Amino acid sequence: MRFLITGATGLIGKEIVALCHKRNIAVNYLTTSKEKIVSRGRYQGFYWDPDSGEIDLACFSEVSAIINLAGASISKRWTDHYKKEILASRINSLKTLYKGLEQVDSKKITSFVSASAIGIYPNSLGSYYTEDEKRVDDSFLGEVVNAWEKEADSFETFDLNVLKIRIGLVLSAEGGALPQMVRPIKNCVGAALGSGEQWQSWVHIEDLARIFLFVVEHELKGVYNGVGPNAVTNKKLIREIAKVLDRPLILPNVPEFVLKTILGEMSYLLLASQRVSSKKIEDEGFVFHFPNIDMALHSTCKSDGEPRSS
To answer: Tens digits of per-residue pLDDT, 88-129?
Structure first.
């Protein structure tokens, strides 16, 4: 078995690649940097340039599933120029993969799985979202995710199992949001953000990687939330991190206007509230290794404040 993975060198991609290799699944990956191309047994690199639509068609050789994680980080200041890059990077990556599939024999490929985000759900303190929700958040993030998913739907033309995994807050020792949260708490200057009441639907990176493989192995299709079973408020999340690190929380919440002043429109990532259900993937038989926030944090943080691998 061999998977083609875009974004394989990113935080989530590395975890999925490692899990693939543990399960004896070979990996082809696409990279925009020719210097990052390696060829060793079950790990083969290929060049592509989504901005120009260039792709090495050899990347599809012997592939049975495609996992798409490509897209510019949303954790950089949202200038008008960078907002265009965030959207274009996602759409162009999908268009380039589509163009490539049109030029090869894709009959052996059974599944196409694209990353998405829970940012598509409207900002709400009271709602509890399942994959059946039709409303889209009226923010830049909602606009991006909606366009991203519509582009992914085009792959149904190839008679594939098309899946979209709506990813929540990923907890990992190796990068993403958690190390940024740990640092101020470790130095005793941590605090909840805004009201602290906003819901944060999180997922341990190990469980997230397992979800991507699970949907392929079980030949599922459609939309699945990539979140753990028990969302927490921002206040609860900060409190639990402090408990694991054995640090006090002595400062008041960081006011919303301060976050907006420092981060601009990107502050929405920290202040938006989406309480999201994992019931659909669990009903398919998926079992989370880290179903609650305490277990997840203990696997990724040590009491001295330094992150650790799970």
So the answer is: 999 999 999 999 999 999 999 999 999 999 999 999 999 999
Q: In this structure, how many other beta carbons lie within 10 angstroms of the beta carbon of residue 113?
A: 29
What is each CA distance from 214 to 67, 180, 283, 306, in whole angstroms? 12, 29, 12, 31
pLDDT higher than threshold 80 for residue 10 = yes
Checking if the pLDDT of 77 tops 70, the result is yes
- Give me the residue spans of the domains in the chain: 2-169+204-227
Q: 43-49 and 54-55: which strand pairing? A: antiparallel
Tell me the HSE value of 82 on the side-chain side, using a 13 A CA sphere: 12
For residue 40, name the pLDDT band (cuts at 50, 70, 90): confident
pLDDT tens, residue by residue, 177-200:
999 899 999 999 999 999 999 999
Going by C-alpha positions, the residue among 55, 59, 63 that lies closest to residue 45 is: 59
Tokens (6 digits) for 281: 């993937």
**Residue pair 138/122 in contact by the 8 Å Cβ criterion:** yes
In angstroms, the Cα distances linking 112 to 14, 98, 194 are 18, 11, 38
Q: Does domain 2-169+204-227 have CATH number 3.40.50.2000?
A: no
C-alpha angle 135-270-12 in degrees, rounded to nearest 5: 85
